[in-house]
Write a structure and sequence with these properties.
By secondary structure, the protein is an alpha+beta fold. It contains eight helices and 15 strands. A hairpin with a 5-residue loop joins strand 1 and strand 2. The protein starts with a helix and ends with a helix. The structure holds 6-O-phosphono-beta-D-fructofuranose (F6P) and manganese (II) ion. Manganese (II) ion (MN) binds next to strand 5.
C-alpha cells in the first residue's frame, strides 16, 4: 500500500474505509467500524448543536428530547442492528445484552459506551465513544479475545483511534465528516510525561500512593480532565504516560467498567506497545462475570505499569 511518507509528499489523503481495505481488514469488520464512524457524525452534531434536553422531557415543539448519552446510544444501536454482521450488543446505557433480530450473519458482538463522560458536555470538556469488538456471539470473555477496539474523541477536533490487532492508527474527521488518516502505528516510547489519576487520593492504597509519588518525583505532569477518552488519548498521542482509576478504600473495584471502557482501551494501549493492569495482573486476562463488572485500572507506559504492579504486590 501507499506509504505514509509518499502520501505526506503528495498531500494525498486516505480515508478510513480505504485504509482498512488496503490493510486487508475483513469486510464485515470494516462494516462495523464504518457504522461507528457514521454514527459519530450524528453524535458530534448533537453535541455541537447543544441539544441538551433531559431524557423524557419535551422540546419547544412538543417533541421528545433525549439526553445526549441516550441519544448516542440509540444512534449506535440502530446502526449496528441493521449492519447485517452483528449478533449481540451491550451498551453502558442498557441493563442487558441485546440479541440482534434483524437479518445478520451474526459474526460480531459489540460492547460500547456510547458517550463516556457525558456530564462533561455541560462544562464544555471533551467526551468520547468507546467500542469493543469480538468475533463471537459471546461478550463475556477476556478482552484479549477482542478482534478490534476503537474510540471516537469529540474534542476541538473529532478523531478516531482504532486497532484491528495490527497497530494503532489515528484518523480525523474532515469537512465532509469523513475520517482521514492522521498517523499510523502509534507507539508508546516509554517514560511517563503525563499522568492522569482518577478517584480521591486520600482513598488510595499505600502501593497506589507510592506510585503517584514516584510519578511526581520523576517529573510526570498532572493532566486529568475527568474524561476517560481524552485522558487516555493524551497518554497515547504524547507517546508516554499513565492513566489510573485505582481501587479505593470505599470502592475496591474502582469505577470503570471492564466491558465498555477498560477492555477496549487496554487493547489499544497494548497494541501501541504499552500495558494495562488491574494492579494484580493483565487487564485483558480478566474473565468477566457480568456486563456490569468494574475493575481498578493502571494503563500506559509499560515499565511504569510493571513498577506499579510491584508496589501493589509489596503492600500485601
Ligand atoms: O465513566 C465515567 C467517567 O466519567 C470517565 O470518563 C472518567 O475517567 C471517570 O468517570 C471520572 O471519574 P471521577 O469523576 O471519579 O474522576
Ligand atoms: Mn463511561
Amino acid at each position: 500500500m501507499t506509504s505514509a511518507a509518499e502520501r505526506g509528499k503528495t498531500k494525498y489523503q486516505i480515508n478510513l474505509r480505504r485504509y482498512l481495505r488496503e490493510c486487508d481488514v475483513d469486510r464485515d469488520l470494516t462494516r462495523v467500524i464504518c457504522e461507528i464512524a457514521n454514527a459519530s457524525k450524528y453524535i458530534i452534531n448533537a453535541i455541537r448543536t447543544g441539544d441538551l434536553g433531559v431524557a423524557g422531557t419535551s422540546n419547544l415543539y412538543g417533541e421528545q428530547q433525549l439526553a445526549l448519552d441516550v441519544l448516542a446510544d440509540r444512534i449506535i444501536q440502530k446502526r449496528l442492528m441493521y449492519s447485517g454482521v452483528v449478533a449481540n450488543l451491550a451498551s453502558e446505557e442498557l441493563p442487558d445484552i441485546i440479541e440482534v433480530t434483524h437479518p445478520s450473519n451474526k459474526r460480531y458482538s459489540i460492547a460500547f459506551d456510547p458517550l463516556d463522560g457525558s456530564s462533561l458536555v455541560d462544562v464544555n470538556l471533551a467526551v468520547g465513544t468507546i467500542v469493543s469488538i469480538f468475533e463471537s456471539d459471546n461478550l463475556l470473555q477476556p478482552g484479549r479475545n477482542q478482534v478490534a477496539a476503537l474510540y471516537v474523541l469529540y474534542g476541538p477536533r473529532t478523531t478516531m483511534v482504532v486497532s484491528t490487532g495490527k497497530g494503532v492508527h489515528e484518523f480525523a474527521m474532515n469537512q465532509l465528516m469523513e475520517f482521514d488518516l492522521v498517523q499510523e502505528n502509534i507507539t508508546m516510547e516509554g517514560g511517563a510525561k503525563v499522568y492522569a489519576p482518577g478517584g480521591t487520593r486520600a482513598k488510595y492504597s499505600p502501593g497506589t500512593e507510592k506510585f503517584a509519588r514516584h510519578l511526581e518525583t520523576n517529573g510526570a505532569k498532572l493532566r486529568y480532565s475527568g474524561g476517560f477518552v481524552p485522558d487516555i488519548n493524551q497518554v497515547l498521542i504524547k507517546r508516554g504516560g499513565v492513566f489510573m482509576y485505582p481501587h479505593l478504600s470505599d470502592a475496591p473495584q474502582g469505577k470503570l467498567r471492564v466491558l465498555f471502557e477498560l477492555n477496549p482501551m487496554a487493547f489499544l494501549i497494548e497494541q501501541a506497545g504499552g500495558a494495562a493492569s488491574t494492579g494484580r495482573g493483565r487487564m485483558l486476562d480478566v474473565e468477566p462475570q457480568g456486563i456490569d463488572d468494574r475493575s481498578p485500572i493502571f494503563i500506559g507506559s509499560k515499565e511504569e505499569i510493571a513498577r506499579l504492579e510491584q508496589f501493589i504486590a509489596e503492600e500485601s
